[in-house]
Amino acid sequence: MVTIRPCQEQDLVLLRAYIPTPGQPDRHDKRFERQQSGRSTFLIAWAGDLPVGAGEILWNGCDAPEINQHYLDCPELNGLDVWPAELRSQGIGTAIISAAEDLARQRACHRIGLGVDDHNPRAAALYLRLGYQETGRRYLDRYHYFDDDGIRHEVADPARFLVKQLELTPGPPDH
Ligand SMILES: CC(C)(COP(=O)(O)OP(=O)(O)OC[C@H]1O[C@@H](n2cnc3c(N)ncnc32)[C@H](O)[C@@H]1OP(=O)(O)O)[C@@H](O)C(=O)NCCC(=O)NCCS
After folding, report:
1. Which of 2.30.29.30, 3.40.50.2000, 3.40.50.10700, 3.40.630.30 is the CATH number of 3-165?
2. Which ligand 1 atom is the nearest neighbour of the CA of 94?
3. Is the CB of 122 under 6 A from ligand 1?
4. For residue range 41-58, what is the model confidence (pLDDT) as tens digits?
């Protein structure tokens, strides 16, 4: 059983210790900074006192301009990860996705998107099973990492964008 909640500053120590970010040593910190600036919500999954997964809702949508221009008002769930790998396939990823969708509904978002790299068919299968739909929009998922010698590498992975329509819960009736 996991609980999902937005990252707090004191969580960063445990995140750095328990969820590795190979080649991106300040990844958790960057995500927390984005959350604090209001651009994202950095969700953490907890099993007791230990962080076991994370995902970030980018409220301004996918960073890639080739997607963003078509999906205004569509937040993106980015960088979903469950760690350690032995904890995968137990519903933690689904719980993070569900929490992200709830937050998007609370902000009256009618849809939420996510990108999936071409080399990740298992993740794509999960998203499609959870109601995300193909948009036909493709893009390059760009990021960088540092190797053991401190050399920076730029990556551009071919990816596609999926979107789920969100049913908004009606509020209480007016009197
Ligand atoms: C993708 C991921 C976040 C899903 O989280 P999860 O907790 O394993 O997901 P759930 O248990 O809720 O659902 C499991 C389903 O996820 C899918 N899946 C995707 N990648 C998977 C992986 N590496 N291992 C296991 N299941 C994976 C499968 O369809 C799986 O269904 P199955 O259990 O019937 O095989 C997680 O597997 C993970 O961290 N993978 C590595 C990082 C990654 O690929 N992130 C996604 C970037 S788009």
Report:
1. 3.40.630.30
2. 12
3. yes
4. 999 999 999 999 999 999
